[in-house]
Amino acid sequence: KIIYTEKTKVGKTSLIMSLVSEEFPDEVPLRAEEITIPADVTPERVPTHIVDYSEAEQSDEQLYQEISKANVICIVYSVNNKKSIEKVTSHWIPLINDRTDKDSRVPLILVGNKSDLVEHSSMETILPIMNQYQDIETCVECSAKNLKNISELFYYAQKAVLHPTGPLYCPEEKELKPSCIKSLTRIFKVSDLDNDGILNDNELNFFQRTCFNTPLAPQALEDVKNVVRRNMTDGVKDNGLSLKGFLFLHTLFIQRGRHETTWTVLRRFGYDDDLELTQEYLFPMIKMPPDCTTELNHNAYLFLQSVFDKHDKDRDCALSPEEVKDLFKVFPYMPWGPDVNHTVCTNEKGWITYQGYLSQWTLTTYLDVQRSLEYLGYLGYSIICEQESQAAAITVTRNKRIDLQKKQTQRSVFRCNVLGARGSGKSGFLQAFLGKNLQGQRRIREDHKSFYAISTTYVYGQEKYLLLHEVMPDFDFLSEADLACDVVCLVYDINNPRSFEYCAKVYKQYFIDSKTPCVVIAAKSDLHEVRQHYSLSPHEFCRKHKLHPPQPFTCSTTEAPNKDIYTRLTTMAMYPAICLYYVRVSRREGRNKLKTTRDVLYFPKNLHMAQADLKNSTFWLRASVGATVFAVLGFAMYRALLKQR
């Protein structure tokens, strides 16, 4: 803290020495040495450095350096010296303002010393100055000789730094500033757990406990509401505190000098001194090892479910456009655009369903966990769920290579990249996953289309999320993100003779040696199939490279398209080594016993047994040897019995 004065003695050094020694000094030097007051003896538990300045001993350059380092500046004048009061506005305030950035002004405190020498107060002269300059936090009259208000002076100096009035309140208008109203409104909406526009007793108690670590006694709660009732007609509704009443209370706290109450609330909800949510609050640290993914955990889904229920006012299990806007009022911007309605499941009105809502959160967490943390921060996850930060909502999955080694996974979200030539039917494949047939897809505006689709599928009774990503058909520039996935869909149009060539080239260039499962989709299967202009037919290509035969698919249906293929894709993503494979079945038909061969897709009925067996290859070796021995012995016994007969 820096205390300024002029050559005329106003007693600023005496104030510092009286604070330290708790008595008026007999001899006063021109300037006191820098003093540090330890945190444990200050009311706010913050260490305080007091720096004295003297025009007689120090240069202007030294003064400017001290101004740049100061957190708060005390300008001392003598209450019995009009010239020293005039110099506050003619010299000191302009000099300080010239040396500080306009957007980060240092708070000022006017200190009227030597109050013991006069019987009148200087406040009538000082109040107009305080109203003229918003940087002035407060004015204190004191006496270094009588030790009057000495401790209070330095308490206010600390308070001006830790709990400044400037960002919160406009003295001229005698009301909260717009940025403060905006911040407190968000806090109110986050705390209004049932979204009825009122903080009831339970919500007020939770708010009190969250911010101040102690609940309000029933009588204290009633006293607070009575104060609001006496001053406003609509501050209390249905025995609960309305937003107007909530804002009035904070206005009252500030007007009564209890800025720390409002600041405690603001900082608990993540705000800094400029009433912006801090980076530490919005983006807590989260370790993300390579080849891992991020998912929401069970507690996060429960929280998001409560947020959905809070805003689904008509209880139709879908969010109307108005309900979506209401949900995101606690955000500084609208995070979801019109493309979201074509990324997740919607109802017949095109509104995002409960399942679609959770799917979008799952997608955001998987693709951009930092953005998901930011969104959860706006919703107040760490406060409502009483967690240290939003990072508690995130699960980082284990390395995918470990999943492959163990032939099992604990993940819930699987990514399928969909590749194919332009016009092959990739977008239709994505939208069909959301239950939209071709007729419904034609109503989607071009600027509202999405390159992602996500929904749930069930694999052996387990609910999993399948994320489809349409990759732009640029063969020469497929990025790592385009290739990193759990399963690949290669889509071609059976009615376009040049469509399959792209799939074949992409597979041979990027996936032929990959462990990522690949599926070829024969799209638009309702149309006439034409011969593909490629050296091999799609079936021959798949057989040569040991791929599953092309899977016919169409979204040109009267009802919602069939979703079996998406379950298969999820199963392949979960168990790439064991869950899907093809066997060649041969049989003789008719009297001439012609041999026909076909490929059959095989799903194990007992996946867990299949996993357990495949974990131990020696089991199969022993079983094979044993079966062979028994077969030989059985055949020998059969021959012996036949001879006896």
Automatic annotation (TrEMBL):
It is a single-pass type IV membrane protein. It holds the Pfam family EF_assoc_2. GO terms for biological process: mitochondrion organization. Residues 1-163, 411-575 form the Miro domain. Signal peptide: none annotated. The keyword Methyltransferase does not apply. GO terms for molecular function: calcium ion binding; GTP binding; GTPase activity. Residues 299-334 form the EF-hand domain. It comes from the Eukaryota. Its main location: mitochondrion. Its EC number is 3.6.5.-. PANTHER family: EF-HAND CALCIUM-BINDING DOMAIN-CONTAINING PROTEIN 7. Atypical mitochondrial nucleoside-triphosphatase (NTPase) involved in mitochondrial trafficking. Probably involved in control of anterograde transport of mitochondria and their subcellular distribution. Can hydrolyze GTP, ATP and UTP. Belongs to the mitochondrial Rho GTPase family. This is Mitochondrial Rho GTPase. It comes from Sander lucioperca (Pike-perch). The gene is rhot1a.
